[in-house]
Amino acid sequence: MSTDSNSDSRYVEYPLFKGLQKPLEFMGVQGRYIYWAAGAIGGAIIGFIVAYCLIGFFAGLITLVLALGTGAALIFIKRRKGLHSKKSDKGVFIYAYSKRV
User: Fold this and answer.
1) Are the beta carbons of 67 and 43 closer than 8 angstroms?
2) Would you say the pTM of this structure is higher than 0.70?
3) pLDDT digits (tens), the chain, 101 positions
4) Which residues are within 8 A (CB) of 78 and not within 5 positions of it... i.e. 6 or more apart?
5) Backbone phi, psi, residue 26, to 5°
6) Which residues face 4 on adjacent strands?
7) Residue 63 class from Cβ within 10 Å (0-12 exposed, 13-18 middle, 19+ buried)?
8) For residue 23, what are the CA distances in angstroms to 15, 28, 29, 88, 97?
């Protein structure tokens, strides 16, 4: 009876899921901008339906293109500041009473 010491001393293997700490990405759009894109697409479709029912197909098509263009432009402009962008103040700040003696 020979016992293999290597098989007894091995640790249990668990699957490793890489990328769990990365932001969600879909077609190049990351994180919160996915929800913005979904909202822009949903608003464009609803705008198309309303304009089509009230005015006609051409007005609905114009509404659809304008809504999608505005949503895409807003997303691309906001993405320049970064995924976790916050308000960044520009200027020189003097803290007069930062250290009290």
Assistant:
1) yes
2) no
3) 555 555 556 777 777 766 666 767 777 777 778 888 889 999 999 999 999 999 999 999 999 999 999 998 988 888 777 656 667 677 777 777 766 65
4) 33, 36, 85
5) -140, 115
6) none
7) buried
8) 21, 11, 10, 22, 40
